[in-house]
Design brief:
Helices cover 52% and strands 12% of the residues. The radius of gyration is 27 Å and the shape is globular. The protein is of the alpha+beta class and 798 residues long. It has a five-stranded antiparallel beta sheet with strand order 1-2-3-5-4, sandwiched between helices. The protein folds into four domains: 2-94, Phosphorylase Kinase, domain 1 (2-Layer Sandwich), CATH 3.30.200; 99-285, Orthogonal Bundle (Transferase(Phosphotransferase), domain 1), CATH 1.10.510; 334-470, Rossmann fold, CATH 3.40.50; 615-798, Serine Threonine Protein Phosphatase 5, Tetratricopeptide repeat, CATH 1.25.40.
Length: 798
C-alpha cells in the first residue's frame, strides 16, 4: 500500500509539497517527509490510512484540528496544515531533527538521572500548556516525544480527540474509539480509566502516562514489560501497582519516587491535580545524575517560566556563539572557503535504536575529513549544538564555508545513507547523494562520502586536497558496531561513560587488534572517575594498560597517544604525559580534546602561558563546548586575565550547568575576579541542585568567600559525614579555604593526596585559592607528593 499511497499523495499535494520519503507509521496513520515548496522547509505529512479513514467526517476532522492548531508552546510540535488528499484526511507538522524518546530507551538502559528529569520537566510543561487550553493528548508515549536541540518536544497533540470526534459511521457516533475497534491511546501507556472506556477521561490520564514514562526512563524498562498482549496490559493497568522506582534505582531522590507513585495511582483523584503541580514538584527536587547535576539554567519573566528555545538551539547559545565568534575573528571576517561543519547524521523514523550508528557514521566521516590538508572542520560539540538550523545560520555562527548534513536509515542488514553538502554562504546545495547498501559495506560508503565531499569542495571552492582516508583499524563489523556505540555513549558523558566502557570492551573482545577501541577504553575508564564518581585507583591500571595497547597496535594513531597522555596525567605522571600529548597533537592538530587536556596538564604543572595557548586553540576548534570554555576560565585567571577568565567560566556555566569543570571554574574565577556577590549567588544555586562532592565543594568555596561562612561550614560537615565517598577530601579543602580555615584546608589536602585524588581533574596549585598557604611546609610537602616542583608554586607573588 505504501507505494500507492505515496503516488496518491504526490499527485494530490504536488502543487504544495514534494514528498521525499516515508518515515513509517502505525496505528491510524502513515508518515512521510516532504519539502514545502514555497518555503523550502522540511515538514512531516501524516495521512489517515484508508482502513481507518472510513466513516471519518473530513469536515469534523478539520474543525477539531483547528482546536489543536492553537497550541503554540516550545515543547509542543505545532500543527501547520490539514486537509484531504484523495479522500484521505492528512495533517502536517514541522520536521524535527532529532531522535524519539523510544530511540533513547532502545538500549534497555536507564537514562541518566539529570537527563531524565530534564525530559520529564519538558513533557510536563507541554501537558500543562495543552491542558490549560482544554486539550488532552490521550496518547502520550515515547514514540510521540522527540529529543532535539537539548529539549523534549511532544507531537500529535489533539489528534486522538480529532479522530474520535470525527467518526460518524453508523454505530460509532462520536463516542469512544474503542467502540470502533481503535483504542484511544496505546495499551502500554493507557490509564485505568482509559482502558475501562470511562466517558469521564480527562487530563489526569496524561499524568498517568507521564508516570509510566518516568518509571521507564529511570529503570530502563516498562513496569509491565512482562505483559505481552494488549489484554494483559489492560489487566495490569487495572490491577497491578509498579514497584517503587527507588527500590530499583537507589540514586533516585525520594521526592521523585513519591511523585511518580502519585501519578500512577489507579484513582485519578489520587494523582496530582494538574501538570503544573508536577512541574512545581520537580522544581523542588534536588538531584544529580551519575555525578552530573540537572540542568538548572532557566529564563524567568515576572512570575511565569519560559523555556529556552527548544527545537533549535536556544537564545543563550546563539548569544554565546556570537560572543565567541567576536573573539575568534575580526568584525566583517568571512568564513574560510575550505572549512566545513559536519552535523550529526539523523536516524529517521520515530521508533529506532540506531541513532548511535547514524551519529557514528558522521563522526567517522568527520575524522576522515580532518586528515585532509587545508580543510578546517568545526568541533563536534559546536557542530552538534546547531543541528536543526539552516546551513546559512550555521555558517554565520561557526565561520564555516560549507555544511554537511545526512541521515541513515538502517533496517536489518540494509541501510540507506543520504547526505547533502550545502554552501553556507548562499544556501545552494553543492552536492547530494544517496547510498543503498548492506550494513557490512559501511566502510566503503564512508570512504565514498569523504572522497566525494573533498572533490566537491575542490571543484566548487578551489584547492587541491588529498583524499587519503583514515584507517578504521578493524574489518570486523560487529566490533565496529560496538565501537560506534562506545563513541556515542562517551560523547554523552555522565552515566554514558560507563556504558562506553562496556561497549569498547565488547569491541575488543571481538577484535583484540582494534587499536581505536583500546584507545576509547582507556579514555572512558579515566573519564569515569570524573563523570561517574569512580575512584581513580579502581580504573587506572586497566586504563593505562588499554592506552599502552592502543599505542603498541597503532603508533600513528593520535587517539592512542591522547589516551596514554590522559591516563598518565590522571596518575600524576607528569614526565610521561607531556611527550604523549605532543605526539597526539603532532599526529592530529585538529583534535580539540588533545589541546584541551594538554592545556589542563600545563596549567596543573604551573606553565601558564603555554596552557593559555593550548586552551585558546581548543576553543578555536570547538567554541561551543562547555568543558572547553570551563577549562579556559581558570587558565586565563592564572595568567592574570581575570575578567576574561570569569567571562569564559560564566559562559561555560550558562551553556551547560551540568558540566563539572564549568561549575568549579565559575566558583574560582568569580572569586579571583573579585565578584563575590556573583560567587555567593552561584554557590547558593549549585547547592540547590547538586549533590556531587566536587560541585558542592566549589559552591562552598564561593559561598565562604562571598561571606556566607555558615553554609560553607555546613558543606564541610556534610563532606565529613560522606568521608568514604570519592573526592570528598578535596571538597572539604575547598570549603575550608572558603572560610579561611587554612589548618583544616591543609589537612583535607593532605588526605586527598593520601587517598590518591588527582589534581589534574580538580585544580592547579597555581590557583589564587592557595595564596594563604604558599609559605607553609605542609603545602610544600603536598606539592612534592604530587610529583611537582614546589619552587614553581611557593614563590608566586600576586
Amino acid at each position: 500500500m505504501g507505494d500507492i499511497l505515496f503516488q496518491q499523495l504526490q499527485a494530490a499535494l504536488g502543487a504544495t509539497y514534494t514528498i521525499e520519503r516515508e518515515l513509517g507509521g502505525g496505528g491510524m496513520s502513515r508518515v512521510f517527509v516532504a519539502t514545502e515548496i514555497a518555503l523550502g522547509r522540511l515538514v512531516v505529512v501524516k495521512v489517515i490510512t484508508p482502513d481507518q479513514s472510513e466513516g471519518v467526517s473530513a469536515e469534523r476532522f478539520a474543525r477539531e484540528m483547528k482546536m489543536a492548531a492553537r497550541l503554540q508552546q516550545a515543547n509542543i510540535v505545532p500543527l501547520l496544515n490539514t486537509g484531504v488528499a484523495e479522500g484521505l484526511p492528512y495533517y502536517t507538522m514541522p520536521f524535527v531533527a532529532g531522535e524519539s524518546l523510544r530511540a533513547r530507551l532502545g538500549t534497555g538502559q536507564p537514562v541518566a538521572l539529570a537527563d531524565a528529569i530534564n525530559i520529564l520537566r519538558d513533557l510536563a510543561r507541554a501537558l500543562a500548556y495543552a491542558h490549560a487550553q482544554g486539550i488532552v493528548h490521550r496518547d502520550i508515549k515515547p514514540e510521540n516525544i522527540l529529543l532535539s536541540g537539548g529539549a523534549a518536544v511532544v507531537t500529535d497533540f489533539g489528534i486522538a480527540k480529532a479522530f474520535s470526534a470525527s467518526r460518524t459511521s453508523a454505530g460509532i457516533g462520536s463516542g469512544s474509539l474503542t467502540q470502533a475497534g481503535f483504542a484511544v491511546g496505546t495499551p502500554a501507556y493507557m490509564a485505568p480509566e482509559q482502558v475501562a472506556a470511562d466517558a469521564g477521561v480527562d487530563h489526569r490520564a496524561d499524568l498517568y502516562a507521564w508516570g509510566l514514562i518516568a518509571w521507564e526512563l529511570l529503570t530502563g524498562r516498562h513496569p509491565f514489560e512482562d505483559a505481552k498482549s494488549g489484554q494483559a496490559l489492560i489487566t495490569a493497568h487495572l490491577t497491578r501497582t509498579p514497584p517503587d522506582v527507588k527500590s530499583l534505582r537507589p540514586d533516585v531522590p525520594p521526592a521523585l519516587s513519591r511523585l511518580i507513585e502519585r501519578c500512577l495511582a489507579k484513582d485519578p483523584d489520587s494523582r496530582p491535580a494538574s501538570a503544573t503541580d508536577v512541574i512545581a514538584a520537580l522544581d523542588q527536587i534536588s538531584t544529580t545524575g551519575g555525578g552530573i547535576p540537572t540542568r538548572a539554567v532557566r529564563i524567568r519573566s515576572g512570575s511565569s517560566r519560559r523555556l529556552v528555545v527548544a527545537v533549535i538551539a536556544g537564545i543563550a547559545v546563539v548569544a554565546l556563539a556570537g560572543w565567541l565568534l567576536s573573539r575568534r575573528a575580526p568584525a566583517g571576517a568571512t568564513a574560510s572557503s575550505k572549512s566545513l561543519a559536519v552535523l550529526p547524521f539523523q536516524s529517521p523514523g520515530g521508533d529506532t535504536a540506531n541513532s548511535y550508528f547514524a551519529e557514528g557514521m558522521a563522526e567517522e566521516v568527520a575524522t576522515a575529513l580532518a586528515k585532509v590538508p587545508g580543510l578546517q572542520l568545526a568541533g563536534r560539540n559546536s557542530a552538534s549544538a546547531h543541528s536543526g538550523k539552516s546551513p546559512q545560520e550555521i555558517g554565520q555562527l561557526l565561520g564555516v564555508g560549507a555544511v554537511l548534513q545526512g541521515s541513515v536509515r538502517r533496517a536489518g542488514e540494509r541501510m540507506r545513507v543520504s547526505v547533502e553538502l550545502t554552501n553556507a554562504t548562499n544556501g545552494i546545495v553543492m552536492w547530494t547523494e544517496s547510498y543503498e547498501r548492506e550494513v557490512k559495506d559501511v566502510f566503503a560508503v564512508q570512504d565514498e562520502i569523504s572522497r566525494e565531499i573533498v572533490s566537491a569542495l575542490r571543484m566548487k571552492l578551489g584547492g587541491g586536497a588529498s583524499t587519503r582516508m583514515a584507517d578504521r583499524g578493524t574489518e570486523n563489523m560487529d566490533a565496529y558496531d560496538d565501537y560506534l556505540r562506545g563513541v556515542y555513549q562517551y560523547q554523552r558523558r555522565g552515566a554514558g561513560v560507563q556504558l562506553a566502557v562496556k561497549a569498547f570492551s565488547d569491541a575488543i573482545a571481538k577484535d583484540s587488534s582494534f587499536a581505536r577501541a583500546w584507545a576509547g577504553l582507556g579514555q572512558a575508564l579515566v573519564s569515569s572517575t570524573e563523570y561517574a564518581n569512580v575512584p581513580i585507583g579502581d580504573v587506572l591500571p586497566r586504563a593505562q594498560g588499554a592506552a599502552a595497547e592502543a599505542v603498541r597496535l597503532a603508533p600513528d594513531l593520535a587517539e592512542a597517544h591522547l589516551a596514554a597522555a590522559t591516563t598518565a596525567m590522571f596518575a600524576d605522571q607528569w614526565a610521561e604525559a607531556e611527550p604523549a600529548f605532543r605526539r597526539a597533537i603532532e599526529l592530529d592538530s585538529s583534535l580539540a580534546l588533545a589541546h584541551q587536556f594538554f592545556a589542563r596538564y600545563l596549567w596543573a604543572s604551573g606553565r601558564v602561558e603555554e596552557a593559555v595557548t593550548q586552551a585558546l586553540m581548543a576553543r578555536t576548534l570547538d567554541p561551543l563546548n562547555a568543558a572547553v570554555l570551563g577549562n579556559l576560565g581558570p587558565i586565563l585567571t592564572a595568567a592574570g586575565r581575570r575578567e576574561e577568565g570569569f567571562e569564559a567560566a560564566r559562559r561555560a556555566f550558562e551553556m551547560d550547568s551540568t558540566v563539572l569543570v564549568a561549575i568549579t571554574a565559575y566558583a574560582h574565577s568569580a572569586v579571583a575576579a573579585g565578584k563575590l556577590s556573583e560567587a555567593r549567588a552561584f554557590g547558593e544555586r549549585v547547592l540547590r541542585y547538586s549533590t556531587d562532592p566536587r560541585a558542592r565543594g566549589a559552591a562552598a568555596y564561593a559561598l565562604g568567600r562571598g561571606g556566607d561562612t555558615t553554609k560553607a561550614r555546613a558543606v564541610y560537615d556534610e563532606m565529613v559525614r560522606r568521608r568514604d565517598e570519592w573526592r570528598t577530601a578535596m571538597a572539604r579543602m575547598r570549603a575550608m579555604f572558603g572560610v579561611g580555615d587554612t589548618a583544616l584546608a591543609l589537612g583535607a589536602l593532605e588526605e586527598a593526596l593520601q587517598r590518591g585524588e588527582p589534581i589534574a581533574i580538580n585544580f592547579s596549585f597555581i590557583d589564587p585559592m592557595f595564596d594563604p598557604v604558599r609559605g607553609s611546609k605542609r603545602f610544600t610537602a603536598v606539592v612534592q607528593g604530587y610529583g611537582l616542583d614546589p619552587a614553581v608554586f611557593t614563590s608566586l607573588k600576586r
